[in-house]
Design goal:
single chain; three-stranded mixed β-sheet; 14 helices; globular
């Protein structure tokens, strides 16, 4: 018998306590005003100084979730990390996180790291759901940790960076329930974004190809998801955006998310019977003969459907972009920071009973679409109320960060570049402004062994 209502029981998000303002970065980089803030849809970009790395990000978010929800180490039976920020080619970040469990005598914990660009967190999540629903499940929770430090070399991609971590507790009787049997994936081979130079934190990026891959994956996943719903419930009306109360996307930058929502509206438009085209779409009839694969960079169609879908976008997707706009692209945690943003941006009574569509993308490439159903119980003390209450720190911590000048931000990245894999190494940045409960790097010794302390 299946465990009942398998889904998300707890959520924790962490982002560094410093950011660079995108308006100031526009001036510093000598680009036109609005290039980053309007063109990309980004306001602030969080980043790590030399005190933080993938290990510290994961330690911080994991410890904070255990504390905030009073989860005992013995309650965790599986722990998997999704990340593309690699410090060691052999030793997983998960093994480092065992420092939080071993002192309590807890070493019977399955899982390791999962890697494929921004998709690693979703792969880890799917593995954890599968474990809870399998014969191996022993009644304990699965814990998924997704974290990355997203940095780019100087150039047009640099303002699309970010940094952060998410911890997701998976188990039965959840307030955010995974819709069983409704996953659609698109996997392919592409060199749109990759990191072959193991002595550098920076990726190689083909920007235009990456957008093409993202949108092609979105088209495929959405149409296959709709087809799987049709096969599961053959008597029901076809799925469209109207079936979702919220739609979340992996966010390389916020403007691409708005374009992606418009893309799904365009797919719905092409799939709709001729006699069911909404009145407001009459001027778009000239696009009915277009083939999806020929329209990835058709600005006329993009502009038309961004306008036609604007009201729905404002309601269903924009609330999920709070953290993405303020922190930037976290890579693996990105789409799940969207879930956190949605939960802290809407009243609980508007969330109760809703259907949330989720599209996850990782270059190279892996992508999936699935959906969650939110519990209806909004009473004080309910599981849904507990998650939302526990996330009440998000907005205040976003505003509690300190702003770093573009010059200092650039210096930090230059120092990281110089010191990448250099040993022995002692960080120099101050820890004074870090949030309480943050882990920070104290030393990398001559054998590359890293040690950490907690604020």
């Amino acid at each position: 018998m299946w465990p009942k209502d398998v889904g998300i029981r707890a959520l924790e998000v962490y982002f560094p306590a410093q950011y660079v303002d995108q308006k100031e970065l526009e001036v510093h980089d000598g680009v036109s005003a609005g290039k980053y803030t309007i063109g990309l849809g980004q306001s602030r970009m969080g980043f790590c100084n030399d005190r933080e790395d993938i290990n510290s990000l994961c330690l911080t978010v994991t410890h904070r979730l255990l504390e905030r929800y009073n989860i005992k180490p013995r309650d965790i039976g599986r722990l998997e990390v999704g990340t593309e920020t690699i410090l060691d080619k052999s030793k997983s970040v998960k093994t480092l996180l065992m420092q939080l469990f071993e002192p309590h005598g807890c070493t019977d914990i399955e899982g390791a790291d999962t890697t494929n660009a921004c998709y690693g967190g979703t792969a880890a999540l799917f593995n954890s759901i599968g474990w809870v629903e399998s014969s191996a499940w022993d009644g304990r929770f699965a814990l998924v940790v997704a974290a990355d430090n997203a940095v780019y070399s100087t150039g047009s991609a640099r303002p699309t960076g970010g940094a952060g971590a998410i911890a997701i507790l998976v188990g039965p009787d959840a307030p955010l329930v995974f819709d069983r049997g409704l996953r659609a994936s698109y996997m392919s081979h592409s060199y749109d974004f990759y990191k072959p130079n193991l002595r550098s934190e920076y990726p190689i990026v083909d920007g235009k190809l990456s957008i093409h891959c993202y949108l092609k994956s979105l088209d495929s996943c959405y149409q296959l998801y709709c087809e799987k719903v049709r096969r599961k419930s053959p008597g029901e009306s076809p799925v469209t955006l109207a079936n979702f109360d919220a739609m979340l996307f992996h966010s390389p930058y916020c403007k691409l998310v708005q374009k992606s929502f418009a893309r799904l509206a365009f797919v719905d438009f092409l799939n709709a019977p001729k006699n069911q085209i909404p009145d407001g779409y009459k001027d778009a009839v000239k696009f009915r003969t277009a083939k999806l694969e020929d329209t990835y960079f058709n600005q006329e169609i993009e502009k038309a459907f961004m306008q036609l879908s604007k009201v729905d976008f404002e309601q269903k997707t924009k609330p999920s972009l709070l953290i993405a706009n303020q922190v930037g692209n976290m890579y693996t945690p990105s789409v799940y920071s969207g879930l956190v943003s949605l939960l802290v941006s809407k009243p609980i009574n508007e969330l109760a009973g809703t259907k949330i569509g989720i599209f996850s993308y990782g270059s190279g490439l892996c992508s999936s679409m699935y959906s969650l159903t939110v519990a209806k119980d909004t009473r004080e003390g309910s599981a849904l109320s507990q998650i939302i209450t526990a996330l009440s720190y998000v907005k205040s911590q976003l505003e509690g960060r300190h702003c770093v000048s573009p010059e200092d931000y650039t210096s930090v990245l230059a120092a990281r570049e110089r010191n990448c894999h250099v040993v022995p190494f002692t960080p120099e940045s101050s820890t004074d402004n870090m949030f309480p409960g943050t882990y920070y790097l104290t030393q990398v010794d001559e054998k590359y062994r890293r040690t950490y302390k907690r604020i």
